[in-house]
Design brief:
Blueprint (H helix, E strand, L loop, with lengths): L1 E2 H7 L5 H9 L7 E2 L1 E3 L9 E4 L12 H6 L4 E4 L9 E3 L3 H12 L8 E6 L4 H14 L4 E4 L11 H13 L4 E5 L2 H5 L10 E4 L13 H9 L9 E5 L3 H15 L9 E4 L1 H7 L1 E2 L4 E5 L2 E5 L5 H15 L4 H8 L10 E2 L7 E5 L4 H14 L4 E5 L9 H9 L4 E4 L9 H17 L9 E4 L3 H10 L6 E5 L6 E4 L2 E4 L2 H11 L7
Parallel strand pairs: 3-4, 4-5, 5-6, 7-9, 7-10, 8-9, 10-11, 11-12, 17-21, 18-19, 18-21, 19-20
Antiparallel strand pairs: 1-2, 13-14, 14-15, 16-17, 22-23
Length: 499
């Protein structure tokens, strides 16, 4: 609980002082704030309601409902009400983050916040950063798709989570920062110690106008506003563009004098590594690493995480030792092994680029056929579907199935994916070898078919859902875990118990 005038006094923003002066001039005693929310449905007595202007909904239209539910003040971008104190701000999204940070004591100023953005690899990097710090003797936590329903939570929840980790004794929090979150300013009010860029490929173009818009959203994490040290995979063309921008801004004096820009050439590091189904061997800063994680992308992710820990001042030798004992990351090239003579891996690859990388990783560790189970999500970026199909043609046998079809007809989604397969196979650069294509809308049946068709030495890659334990069909969410279904299919073939 905090008085509204006290909260404004703790808010580090140019608009806070004028707002406090206007509040003081009203003649009323400032009310006590018990919570901050941007969702009128969650308002309770004492809440400060922040009205956000969205592309579909306008929170200003819900101000009266919020007040009726107990809101004692509102944050708005235009005058709406005289019923409660009204804080009129230039940007209510930015103000929400700044107020939320102040309300819980600016936790990001009291620990090291590592922000990780990019299309693929965010979860692996934040998980590895937290693992390294913990192995070095301090307490760290990660935030992202493995810990919440959103990659990056809404501003009040994001700040509350940081505060909770601080109270638990964490000195480092590694957080996935999505393009949606950056565009919507969900981490406004945060201090970022290190910002990491993994890569950029087509995704979320149902939200962003185009790839340039998508890139600019990601690049915001590296702006002088945050002043964070930057660690960037420059083997990605967008990563190189970002590094060039950061270097130019640093040379212009827009960053602190001690600002670091660390460039990682992920593609070169992968090319020098030795890859196996369950591990990757490579050298980082003269240290030989035996990383117990499969997938070529794990090499880059591990190096990005290691560089982040080094930037925070952790010992190189301890960082290297930590990577040697990293635990498997749920749904990231995760093996399902019940003793069968072929490999089965479950991976979160759900973009064209990540599907290509998953197949490439599988190809590098198997002498047999690569059997790929994959699909595309409904109600999301339809332009990505044929690209998913085209990317999949690097495999030998395709099982095109459902991902989360949501309210769309699964068969129509599969049509679009297969159209991409057919276009790629008819192109000048198409593979000369025959590729089998199976169309199986039921995901469980597709997994069963891929596994039952595997021969010794093959590898089955079940792509798209990774760690997720649900599937959304229509508006219903059902229990569905690729790993569970893979084990069941193996059990049906007589391998060890699926339990």
């Amino acid at each position: 609980m905090m008085r509204l005038d006290e909260l404004l006094g703790k808010t580090r923003a140019s608009w806070a002082e004028p707002a406090a002066n206007a509040l003081a001039g009203s003649g009323d005693d400032p009310p006590e704030v018990t919570s901050i929310t941007q969702d009128s449905r969650t308002v309770s007595a004492g809440a400060l309601f922040c009205a956000l202007q969205g592309s579909v909904f306008d929170g200003h239209e819900h101000v009266d409902a919020a007040i009726d539910a107990g809101a004692i003040a509102v944050v708005v971008e235009r005058h709406v009400t005289n019923r409660v104190p009204e804080l009129v701000v230039p940007d209510s999204r930015v103000a929400t983050g700044e107020l939320a940070a102040a309300f819980v004591g600016h936790p990001s100023a009291l620990l090291d916040l590592i922000g990780v953005t990019g299309t693929n690899g965010k979860t692996s990097v934040v998980t590895l950063v937290a693992h390294i710090v913990n192995a070095c003797g301090e307490l760290a936590a990660s935030m992202g798709t493995l810990t919440g329903s959103l990659t990056t939570a809404a501003a009040p929840d994001f700040q509350q989570s940081l505060r909770g980790h601080l109270q638990d004794g964490c000195t480092v929090v590694a957080a996935e920062i999505s393009s949606h979150a950056l565009d919507q300013r969900r981490i406004a009010g945060s201090e970022v110690s290190v910002a990491i860029f993994t890569n950029l490929s087509q995704d979320h173009l149902d939200y962003h106008d185009d790839m340039d818009d998508y890139f600019e959203a990601k690049a915001a994490l590296f702006a002088p506003e945050f002043g964070a040290d930057a660690i960037i995979d420059v083997s990605d063309p967008y990563g190189q563009q970002l590094a060039d921008r950061v270097r130019s801004q640093r040379d212009a004096g827009l960053f602190p004098s001690d600002h670091e820009l660390i460039e990682v050439d992920g593609a070169t590091e992968i090319a020098k590594a030795t890859l196996a189904q369950h591990s990757s061997s490579f050298t980082w800063r003269s240290h030989h690493i035996e990383l117990p994680l499969g997938g070529s992308f794990s090499v880059t992710n591990a190096i990005l995480a290691a560089e982040a820990a080094l930037a925070l001042g952790y010992d190189e030798t301890k960082i290297a030792a930590a990577l040697n004992v990293a635990a498997p990351i749920p749904g990231r090239f995760e093996s399902v092994d019940l003793g069968q003579p072929f490999a089965v891996v479950v991976d979160y690859s759900h973009t064209p680029a990540s599907v290509s990388i998953a197949v490439e990783s599988a190809r590098g560790i198997s002498g047999g056929k690569v059997r790929l189970v994959f699909g595309a999500a409904g109600d999301r970026d339809p332009g990505k579907r044929p690209l998913m199909g085209a990317a999949a043609t690097t495999a030998d046998v395709l099982y095109v199935t459902s991902d989360n079809p949501r309210t769309e007809d699964p068969e129509l989604i599969i049509d679009a994916v297969i159209a991409g397969v057919e276009t790629a196979l008819s192109g000048e650069t198409a593979r000369s070898e025959d590729i089998e294509v199976h169309r199986i809308a039921d995901r469980a049946d597709a997994i069963r078919s891929a596994i039952s068709g595997a021969a010794p030495g093959d590898i089955v890659v079940i792509a798209g859902k990774g760690h997720e334990d649900y599937q959304i069909i229509g508006t219903t969410t059902i229990d569905f875990d690729d790993r569970v279904h893979a084990r069941a299919a193996l059990a049906e073939l007589g391998w060890e118990s699926a339990t």
